[in-house]
Amino acid sequence: MEAYYNCMHCMNRKVRILTRDGKVHEGKIVKVDRNNVYLETDGRRAVTTSAFVPYGYGFARRNQILTLSLFTLLAIALI
Fold it and tell me: The whole model's pTM is what?
């Protein structure tokens, strides 16, 4: 529950998040629910998803929303 309140405190602010598996994510927290934090990344780093995009489908590069489980958060810092 502490991770939830920490994320709520940092809502709409740029943060750096360290997860239990040693990964670091940077972005702005756009939403928090009881299980996940939703981080808007700047699109410079590749985000791996399971989504399928057909070849030749064009779209503008924009910020991506990364969903992280609150259970996996180790630390969060404002940047």
Answer: 0.74
